[in-house]
Design goal:
single chain; 2 domains
């Protein structure tokens, strides 16, 4: 009788331990997906001094406990190092390709419309249809935090003309599946009317 009682106590203890461990594992925090911003570095040390490599924008990491600031240890492509958590975001950052397309500012008129045409190699400022006002080479544009920056870049004419320098930003917004482009006022008189809210036609 005592032997049977002892066995029952042992079995009860085992069951309670198993149920406790399963409860604890259920409470463990799940990993959250984070993406890297443009220019994120993988550092050898947690002070961010020696760079191992520069990570591609939107590199994906699964992180359980993201600190509010500082450096976090990660493994990327068999390399262990640290990344600055300020460069991590829960949503993907826009790349240049996300900006590509035909954008129209203001009311789209059948006769004259202000169009910003963004292609793989160029950014065109047009009076649509067919009248090119000025052009910027896409390699001079920088995309950071869903914004395309034209920082003191050369503004070319339709041909060999050079219209001076241009500083302007174009911020990509997404709402209810629709894209809009918020274009800042340019500092170049040639395209002085090309600013405001732009939509794809």
């Amino acid at each position: 009788m005592k032997k049977r009682f002892s066995i029952m106590v042992i079995v009860a203890l085992l069951i309670s331990c198993l149920s406790f461990s399963s409860f604890a594992s259920a409470e463990t925090a799940k990993a959250t997906i984070y993406y890297t911003a443009a220019g994120t570095h993988l550092y050898k040390d947690k002070k961010g001094v020696k760079t191992i490599r520069t990570l591609s924008v939107n590199t994906k990491f699964y992180i359980r406990h993201k600190p509010s600031r500082g450096f976090y240890r990660v493994t990327y492509s068999k390399s262990s190092g640290y990344i600055n958590v300020k460069n991590l975001t829960k949503s993907k950052a826009a790349t240049y390709k996300d900006f590509e397309g035909s954008w129209y500012l203001g009311k789209v008129n059948a006769h004259v419309s202000r169009q910003i045409l963004i292609t793989k190699n160029y950014i065109y400022f047009n009076y649509d249809p067919g009248a090119v006002i000025a052009v910027v080479k896409s390699k001079n544009a920088v995309v950071r935090n869903n914004t395309l920056y034209l920082q003191h870049v050369t503004l070319h004419g339709d041909g060999t003309q050079i219209w001076g320098k241009l500083t302007q930003t174009m911020e990509l917004k997404m709402k209810n599946g629709k894209k809009t482009l918020l274009v800042s006022k340019p500092d170049n008189k040639i395209i002085k009317d090309f600013y405001g809210k732009a939509v794809m036609k």
